[in-house]
TrEMBL record, chain A:
It comes from the Bacteria. Residues 6-126 form the Acyl-CoA dehydrogenase/oxidase N-terminal domain. Its cofactor is FAD. Residues 235-382 form the Acyl-CoA dehydrogenase/oxidase C-terminal domain. Belongs to the acyl-CoA dehydrogenase family. InterPro entries: Acyl-CoA_Oxase/DH_mid-dom, Acyl-CoA_Oxase/DH_mid-dom_sf, AcylCo_DH-like_C, AcylCo_DH/oxidase_C, AcylCoA_DH/ox_N, AcylCoA_DH/ox_N_sf, AcylCoA_DH/oxidase_NM_dom_sf, Mycobact_Acyl-CoA_DH. This is Acyl-CoA dehydrogenase family protein. Gene3D superfamilies: Acyl-CoA dehydrogenase/oxidase, N-terminal domain, Butyryl-CoA Dehydrogenase, subunit A, domain 2, Butyryl-CoA Dehydrogenase, subunit A, domain 3. The keyword rRNA processing does not apply.
UniProtKB/TrEMBL annotation, chain B:
Residues 229-374 form the Acyl-CoA dehydrogenase/oxidase C-terminal domain. The keyword Flavoprotein applies. Keywords: FAD, Flavoprotein, Oxidoreductase. It comes from the Bacteria. Its cofactor is FAD. This is Acyl-CoA dehydrogenase. The keyword Aminoacyl-tRNA synthetase does not apply. InterPro entries: Acyl-CoA_Oxase/DH_mid-dom, Acyl-CoA_Oxase/DH_mid-dom_sf, AcylCo_DH-like_C, AcylCo_DH/oxidase_C, AcylCoA_DH/ox_N, AcylCoA_DH/ox_N_sf, AcylCoA_DH/oxidase_NM_dom_sf. Residues 7-120 form the Acyl-CoA dehydrogenase/oxidase N-terminal domain. Residues 137-201 form the Acyl-CoA oxidase/dehydrogenase middle domain.
Length: 387, 379
């Protein structure tokens, strides 16, 4: 038996012993997702047990080094763990912008001290992070941002407003793009980290068309940020931000979770009984695209691991993945018929079909619009001339 | 197994890419034979050269003198064939017929495989009986006659049928047209009495034949596999053909896309390179995404087929359908973005459109395979 075969056998046995049956069911609603943080509570004992078992094993961030709270798995081992978790439909033990976005940026740009502190907190689910990128005047055009940090010697005084800060009202800390030099558009931004409980930070949820409000407006009024709380170099935060955006796009595309790319025809047939022949045909054509995208997601992750992927490829994954996800929810609404319209009944799990359908419309806006993704593909991959 | 080519496969890709770009180029092969109204639609000299490169026996086991490689490797050669629109019997002979012969007895292997490996023989496969690919339905009959069989019926759009030294024919030895069981495969030599071809030239300048079998007498040893038990081998041939056609289609799509993107960087209108216009940039970027995804699906299907995985056949249909969509988009955008010259025979982009159309029908189109994905998924 090769090392990888025995790793698979061990992993299977470990999951069997540690993943409670309730954690092997698809996530139904927001309360099924555990985000960690100072204010976190568990929905059930099973959720708590599953999180703690993974945390202690380093499986909240399996590929991170052990000294930073991970399990130090090699890429093939991490893939085996993913496959084995997918095989039993295990839920992610911890969801976190710290894992998906800040962590990879710290691993690349952070100091040893920052890595030991922040990565361990993320891996152990102790601190919940939110992201401060967009501003009212700077959505996809991030370099136009205005939030300003004034240099006060040993600290900055930050003033400005962020928008679309997901779960800012529930987060403990924020990673944030702040202009520190007004004379240079690109090289005048610093990537700062600070506690959301700092005096002068306030948040207000934005109600969306889905009726939910995961997003907030966040205001900074003379917020004091110590001078050592930045990542990368001062005024070179754009390098960190660009790197991190790559990970964000990957995440939104669903490339990290190829299950989302799987077909839906069979599931809808089970749920709704007979399918209208034209709908069946549309579902079949959708499933072709979805199963093909799932292969693409697997190929992309394999290539990322060995540095074969084009640096702008996450933009393609984000574009294709989010457009696919919107189409998926359009079809789910069509198959569900009037039942999918229910807004707040218990039967409809609080209108989850309708709310999810509306939520997906943001997929091709957040993290850079589809149009911005197409611009990047055209210029950086196809090398078409600039206007 | 990671979903990209390993070092050996990447080396094969370099070799195949260089060889096809030089020897299989559009001007040297497709246009050359088309303009001479070649009755085969391809050049035998190139086929011989492909044999010298080792390509012809790529899927033939080493014990039979081949290279014993898999569908990933065959796909590498097919992608380059597609990119250069190289007319060649590779797909029908080295992929589909070779898959059938892999299941044949020693006599048949000894009789046909050396010629394939040497590039002296070409093979065809006769499955369809009508304008659309419907392999579930086999009406051609094979009746017991002496110690052999007598075949009667008609097969349509047999690619390179009239040029083939041997044709793998799917016929019915029992049951009725729509039965899964009762199908038998035969290796029919070109000189068999009662075999008649009505050869037609298709839109892409390739040749296909309407095959009439009028009491074609064959010895019992012409049977590939078991009598009445041919459906399983036929399904393997079909999967090999689906994945192979998908790989060639990826090459067609990439060839058309590369040509178009190059054109966007050269052609000026309104005082600008047309590639500067966002309307065209977005369409080109969308096309790129579709072609990359189609290619990933194809490599996945090749790997699953090589691994003998349970879901290989599902993924083969996913790949054929996805490539059908993506390559169709590539050639349509290609002709449109080239503007008026895209409609001229002088420019190659239209040739990509023609080849894509023929390849889209071969082994089942988007609709057939999407339907199959639905059925295999249980709806």
């Amino acid at each position: 038996m090769s090392d990888l075969d025995s790793f698979r056998a061990e992993t299977r046995a470990w999951l069997e012993a540690n993943c409670p049956p309730e954690m092997r069911e698809p996530v139904q609603g927001e309360e099924d997702v555990y985000w960690g943080g100072r204010k976190a509570t568990f929905k059930s004992d099973a959720q708590k047990a599953w999180f703690e078992a993974c945390r202690d094993k380093g499986y909240t961030v399996p590929a991170w080094p052990r000294e930073y709270g991970g399990a130090g798995l090699s890429p093939p081992e991490a893939k085996i763990l993913r496959e084995e978790m997918a095989r039993i439909n295990a839920r992610p033990p911890l969801s976190s912008f710290g894992i998906w976005m800040l962590g990879p940026a710290l691993l690349k740009f952070g100091t040893e001290e920052q890595k030991r502190k922040y990565l361990n907190e993320i891996a152990r689910g102790e601190i919940r992070w939110c992201q401060g990128y967009s501003e009212p005047g700077s959505g996809s055009d991030l370099v136009s941002l205005q939030t300003f940090g004034e240099d006060k010697g040993d600290h900055w005084i930050v003033n400005g407003q962020k928008i679309w800060t997901s779960y800012a009202d529930k987060a403990d800390w924020i990673f944030c793009l702040v202009r520190t030099d007004k004379s240079n558009k690109y090289q005048g931004i610093t990537f700062m980290l600070f506690d959301m409980e700092s005096p002068g930070v306030s948040t207000k949820p934005i109600k969306l068309i889905s009726g939910n409000s995961p997003f907030c407006e966040t205001f900074f009024d003379d917020v004091k940020v110590p001078k050592d709380q930045y990542v990368g170099e001062i005024n070179r935060g754009w390098d960190v931000a660009k790197y991190l955006l790559g990970h964000e796009r990957e995440m939104i595309s669903g490339a990290d979770n190829s299950e989302r790319g799987a077909g839906i025809g069979a599931m809808l047939k089970r749920q709704t009984g007979e399918l209208d022949p034209v709908l069946r045909a549309e579902l079949a054509l959708f499933d072709v695209d979805a199963l093909a995208f799932s292969a693409m997601a697997e190929k992309f992750l394999d290539e990322v691991k060995v540095g074969k992927a084009h640096p702008a490829q996450p933009n393609m994954m984000k574009y294709a993945g989010t457009e696919l996800n919107k189409r998926r929810h359009e079809l789910m609404m069509a198959a569900g018929g009037s039942a999918a319209l229910e807004w707040d009944s218990e039967e409809s799990r609080g209108g989850s079909a309708a709310r999810s359908w509306l939520r997906t419309k943001a997929n091709s806006i957040e993290g850079g619009t589809s149009e911005v993704m197409l611009n990047v593909i055209a210029k950086r991959i196809l090398e078409l001339p600039g206007a | 197994m990671p979903l990209y080519h390993d070092d050996d496969q990447a080396m094969l890709a370099d070799t195949a890419s260089q060889f096809m770009a030089e020897e299989g180029a559009i001007a040297k092969q497709l246009r050359h034979w088309r303009d001479r109204e070649c009755k085969d639609g391809f050049g035998h000299a190139l086929w011989k050269q492909m044999a010298e490169m080792g390509f012809t026996g790529i899927l033939v086991p080493e014990a039979d003198g081949g290279l014993g490689m898999g569908h990933v490797e065959a796909g590498i050669v097919l992608e380059e064939i597609g990119r250069n629109l190289t007319p060649s019997p590779f797909l029908t002979s080295s992929v589909v017929a070779a898959t059938a012969l892999g299941q044949a007895n020693d006599d048949l292997r000894g009789r046909w495989l050396p010629g394939l490996i040497a590039g002296d023989s070409v093979f065809a496969v006769a499955i369809d009986e009508g304008a659309k690919h419907r392999p579930e339905r086999i009406a051609t009959r094979a009746e017991k006659s002496g110690n052999g069989f007598k075949l009667s019926g008609r097969k349509d759009f047999v690619v390179q049928g009239a040029s083939a030294d041997m044709i793998v024919v799917a016929a019915r030895t029992s049951g009725t047209e729509d039965d899964a069981d009762g199908v038998t495969l035969f290796a029919v030599p070109k000189d068999a009495a009662g075999l008649d071809h009505n050869a037609v030239r298709l839109v892409d300048s390739s040749m296909a034949s309407h095959l009439t079998l009028d009491g074609v007498e064959l010895d019992g040893d012409a049977v590939i596999g078991e009598v009445d038990g041919g459906r399983e081998i036929l399904n393997r041939m079909l999967d090999a053909g689906r994945v192979g056609a998908a790989a060639e289609g990826v090459g067609v799509a990439r060839g058309a896309m590369d040509m178009t993107v190059d054109y966007l960087k050269q052609r000026k209108q309104f005082g600008k390179l047309i590639g500067e216009f966002q309307a065209l940039q977005h369409r080109a970027a969308h096309l790129y995404s579709e072609v990359e995804i189609a290619r990933a699906a194809t490599i996945k299907a090749q790997q699953l087929l090589d691994a003998g995985a349970e879901n290989a056949s599902l993924m083969a249909s996913v790949a054929k359908a996805k490539v059908g969509k993506a390559a169709g988009l590539a050639v349509k955008e290609g002709v449109q973005m080239h503007g008026g010259i895209g409609m001229t025979d002088e420019y190659d982009i239209g040739l990509y459109m023609k080849r894509d159309r023929a390849l889209a029908e071969f082994m089942g189109d988007v609709h057939y395979h999407a339907g199959r994905v639905a059925e295999l998924s249980g709806y």
